[in-house]
Recover the amino acids of this structure.
């Protein structure tokens, strides 16, 4: 089945270039479904896009569909890639703020597909603080862009803001679609979130892990065609749709789930933050205060899950761990890499601004036996693809692909 690209066309003079985008995509074998804003129809007629795409153009939010379906939801689900070209300052502002007041913005808000924008606007609008802030917000959410370019603009100005050429937009779209499927059939297990070690029925030892990094990895792996097993502990982030989801509570639960499923996996990424210790004694009822007396507990060390998996890792398997540190980041990470028989470790200083627990961004170093790579601040979703790129390269080397 041909991959489906939903193309959003907004009201800008660059809309005429989108006609060529549709033509090029169709010649390459993609299914193209076009959504036009009302303003876009003032520049190019829907009939033009219908003729080139071979599909009906959607523009009216309340038009009766030819067959019964909630159209914006159907298109959102059908999309393998959601492309908006031209992407005006207006649609970027709507997407950044979650506004859904027409068919295009409503469908874009509903889709789970990767979103690619081809911005096109006056230089002053492109450089305006509001647009720059909206762009930053969208990029933090994993929205990708192609262009804009510099040059002579339709308004008579010269500067940055001209929409990229159709050939460049199509190339950017194909790169995203090609990347999506490079994990097709590969079995990936991701652990996410924190574990809880209960002292009594209401109190526990835990940490601030939200599950966002692990969920970003699971979501990215699914988007790239992998068969994903997600083993997750306590989380606050929204749980992504995966092939199989296993919920655990304690570190022992996590240990058993991971070891039970490890042998069937090709790539194992341990992004969870398990508690290193548990209470030696767990009270069956709520523990009561004792009039100011000091409270002393004995903690015992939990099993090291990554080390246990590393000890039985197959020759073709890839094992990736995380090192959340506060001091001597790379030294501690490299020691864990060797001791746990990891193929790669993702090291991050959880005290650094924009990194660590319960935020949407991260700053990491990717460390292997042969070297290390420092990555800049980026969203956890963008980082997930970076990690998967390296994991897949290691896997292909091991399997001779």
């Amino acid at each position: 089945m041909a991959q489906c690209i939903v193309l959003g066309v907004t009201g800008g003079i660059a809309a005429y270039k989108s006609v060529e985008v549709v033509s090029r995509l169709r010649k390459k074998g993609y299914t193209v479904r076009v959504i036009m804003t009302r303003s876009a129809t003032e520049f190019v007629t829907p009939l033009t896009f219908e003729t080139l795409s071979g599909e009906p153009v959607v523009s009216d939010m309340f038009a009766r569909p030819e067959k019964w379906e909630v159209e914006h939801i159907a298109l959102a689900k059908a999309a393998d890639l959601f492309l908006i070209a031209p992407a005006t300052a207006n649609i970027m502002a709507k997407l950044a703020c979650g506004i859904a007041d027409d068919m295009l913005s409503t469908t874009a808000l509903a889709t789970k597909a990767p979103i690619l924008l081809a911005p096109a606007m006056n230089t002053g609008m492109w450089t305006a603080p509001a647009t720059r802030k909206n762009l930053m917000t969208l990029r933090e959410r994993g929205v990708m862009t192609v262009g804009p370019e510099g040059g002579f603009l339709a308004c008579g100005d010269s500067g940055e803001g001209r929409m990229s050429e159709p050939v460049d937009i199509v190339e950017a779209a194909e790169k995203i679609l090609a990347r999506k499927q490079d994990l097709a059939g590969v079995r990936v297990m991701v652990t996410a979130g924190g574990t809880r070690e209960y002292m009594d029925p209401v109190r526990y030892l835990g940490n601030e892990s939200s599950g966002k990094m692990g969920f970003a990895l699971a979501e990215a792996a699914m988007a790239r065609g992998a068969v994903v097993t997600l083993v997750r502990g306590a989380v606050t982030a929204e749980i992504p749709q995966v092939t199989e989801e296993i919920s655990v509570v304690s570190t022992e639960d996590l240990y058993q789930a991971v070891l039970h499923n490890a042998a069937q996996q090709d790539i194992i990424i341990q992004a969870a933050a398990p508690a290193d210790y548990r209470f030696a004694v767990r009270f069956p009822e709520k523990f009561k205060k004792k009039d100011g007396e000091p409270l002393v507990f004995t903690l015992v060390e939990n099993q090291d899950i990554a080390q246990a998996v590393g000890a039985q890792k197959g020759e073709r398997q890839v094992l990736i761990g995380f090192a959340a540190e506060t001091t001597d980041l790379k030294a501690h990470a490299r020691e864990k890499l060797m001791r746990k028989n990891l193929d790669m470790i993702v090291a991050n200083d959880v005290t650094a601004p924009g990194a660590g627990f319960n935020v949407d961004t991260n700053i990491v170093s990717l460390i292997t036996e042969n070297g290390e790579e420092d990555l800049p601040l980026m969203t956890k979703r963008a980082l997930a693809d970076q990690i998967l790129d390296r994991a897949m390269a290691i896997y292909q080397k091991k399997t001779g692909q």
